[in-house]
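Weekly modeling sync, notes
Attendees: S.R. (lead), two postdocs, one rotation student

Agenda item 3: backlog of single-chain predictions. S.R. asked that every request posted to the team notebook include the full sequence so nobody has to chase files. The rotation student volunteered to paste the first one in as an example of the format we agreed on. Action items at the bottom.

Example entry:
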Amino acid sequence: MEVLMPQLGETVAEGKVTNWFKGVGDTVKAGENLFEIETDKVSMEIQAIAGGVLTEIRVPVGDVAPVGAVVAVIGDGSRATAKPAPAAARPVQPAPARTPAAPVVPAPAAQPPSAPRPRITALDPFFEVRTPEGNYGPARLPSGVVTTPLARRLAANAGLDLSRVPGSGPHGRIVGRDVETAAAGGAGKVAAAAAPVGSLSTAQVKALYPDTPYEEIPLDGMRRTIAQRLTQAKQMIPHFYLVADVEIDALTKVREEANAAAPRDEDGKPSFKSSLNDFVIKAWAAALQQVPNANAVWAEDRILRFTHSDVAVAVAIEGGLITPVVRKAESKTVRTISTEMKDLAARARERRLKPQEYQGGASAISNLGMHGVREFSAIINPPHATILAVGAVRRQPVERPDGGIAFVSVMTVTLSCDHRVVDGVLGAELLAAFKGFVENPVRMLA
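Predicted structure, as returned to the notebook:
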């Protein structure tokens, strides 16, 4: 059984092995932790689906392998110390000289004919068995080229035109190794894909600072992914922005009363303490319910409109940020949201979130108010159609309906909208609903 590098998320193309819990020759039981990987978003312990003996480790600690690569081999124990078979005898790694349409023919000695070795890949929840021809579901491009998701991701990163890449998979299908070979040889390059018009190359940027001391910091997987996704988002999504000032005196009073009424432990400390952001999440979830047409995402040829308010919340971590999702936030109490966010944020900083905990969501919130930022405009995280940017609270004078002047606590929020899903009036309705819940918090807590 060949254990493959798992795909922990649709946008993850590779993983780094950070620990092996078993060594070659060790007995492995189904459900035991086998190895640990780190992607641009999370670290996760991967379990074995079947028992046996770990006969081979192909990706050592510290090495990076693409999704779908064989990282280890588990045998039945009869050949625990056997040396790896020659490459020509392995159906999963055919010789480079093989013609594109030639079928894979395993050597007789590679495995018993009565017990073909399945290929195993780690997916959600952990593993699934795929056939020797399976590659995460082949897809046919408009040009008629048949390719795999892994090959498409690798080609996008390398700036390759898949219609110009020969395939070595079954029936000429383009697989990941074909893209890697083409990238190494410079074949199929798309001139505009590698460097957008107007951008500077590394050499050009460095040439601007010949006499200026600097330190070069290589991009890690997270920073590279953030750069790619947000560049694409800003280029492809027609953003527009709506700004509103929201008075939070009533909300602050409710928050203080709720925290004061929290049960105390033996040391007199409250069992929980809700933050302003917890109430913002609750108010945003309620607003999405009140304006259901805005509780939606873009899906290329259609719009997906959701029943529940799944709110993603930006959390800063070392090297970047991640957006864990509070599911069904409209049905949860502020106390539950507070407890859940503390747990999600803590595990996010340790890169211990599961993919289902940070993928999806109907909308997002980014709060920089605690850093003193008065207001800002956030970039939409696709496929979301909206993101709410929350600024710092400040005191300012306002004129009351009776002509009097009063000082109130004001928070500026900026709503970024995808015009393909949310029009101006719809975005204004959503922002007005949020403002109403914050300024009259009893409505969302009832």
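Discussion: group reviewed the output briefly. The domain at 225-445 is CATH 3.30.559.10 (Chloramphenicol Acetyltransferase).
Action items: rotation student to repeat for the remaining queue; S.R. to check formatting next week.
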